[in-house]
Each structure stands twice: as C-alpha cells, then as structure tokens.
Amino acid sequence: MKTYQTILSTAMITLVLASCSDPRTSETRESEVAAETKEAAETEESRPSPLMVKEGQIAGKGFKVQYGSPSVKGRELWGDLVPYNVVWRTGANEASYVDLAEDMSVEGKKLAAGKYSLFTIPKETGPWTVIFNSEWDLEHGHFQYDEKNDVLRVDVTPVWEETSQESLSMEVENPGIVIRWEKLKLPISIN
C-alpha cells in the first residue's frame, strides 16, 4: 500500500510540474508568432477585394479614403449585385471610410473634420445619395449600418461612361473624390 501511495504521489507531482512548465523553447514561440504574422499577411494579400488606401490634398487640406476594391468579374452590377434604392457600403468587406484632416464642404454642405464611413444609395435614374456616417469602423459594411448615425447626406449625379473599369476605385481628384466601377463615374464635389 505504501508503494502504491508513493507511486501515486510521484505521478501527481510530475503532472503538476509538467503542467506548470512550458516545454516550448523561446525559439519555438518566436517561430509560431512569425508563422501567425505571415499567415495574416498572406490572408490580406489573398483578399478577393484588396484593401486600398488613397491619400491626397483637397483645397490644401489632407484627405484619405480606405475601401475594399471589388472586381466586376463578368457580373451584372447595378440593380443586381448592387441593388437600387438600398444602402450600399460603396466597396467590399468592411465599410469604406474617409478621413478629413480639417472641416470641408461636400456638395456645398459642411462636414466637420474626422472619420466617416461612406455609403451610397444607387438609383436606376437620377442622382444617387451619398452618405457620411459617424460609425466609420464597421467590420461588415452595410450589415451594421445605422441611419441614426448619418452625419451628412448629399445627392450626386452619376456619369455613365463608354469604357468599363474592372476594379472599383476611389481617387482623390477634381472635383474632390471620384468613384469609378464598371461604367460608373460618381464625382463627389469636396472643398
């Protein structure tokens, strides 16, 4: 019986000591962290809709836009993939957002300095509604959109071009920011 108690005690002490120590070396832990970092970078690179950041000056003021850039891939966009009369995240994946270094004017209406998610409501005919929302860091775009956080809504007339652009782009250019995708050109006046 005493031998059984000794063996049992020794086994328990061994288990406790084994569970308290980390058998991995520092090199092993560093290797695992490096592998996780590499995996995260590869995931970012393999996004179907790459994350894009454009920065520039509008009327001498700093302006930045970040968005997921989807591709047409032969799909029917307007009225199908992007429905009419429904809030669209204006990009892919997480919500697109703008960052204004100073107060600016959008389509003649004041917008205070800060970060805003950017949404649009596409229309089959007539002007589209462009929305700046105070909840700028939305992981799932329009699925988390809440109208009560709208800071500014403006109407912008789209231009339909002859040539088609495969990937969505948002460029800081005259008259402020221009969104292009497929045959759409949506020039948003900012100053």
Task: Explain the overall architecture.
This protein has helices spanning 2-20, 26-45; strands spanning 51-58, 61-68, 96-100, 104-106, 109-111, 114-121, 128-133, 150-156, 159-173, 176-189. It is of the alpha+beta class and 191 residues long. It has two domains: 2-45; 51-189, no CATH class. The strands form three sheets. A six-stranded antiparallel beta sheet has the order 1-2-3-6-7-8, with no helix packed on it. The chain has a two-stranded antiparallel ribbon with strand order 4-5. A two-stranded antiparallel ribbon has the order 9-10. Strand 6 and strand 7 (128-133) form a beta hairpin. Mean pLDDT is 83; it is low at 1-43.
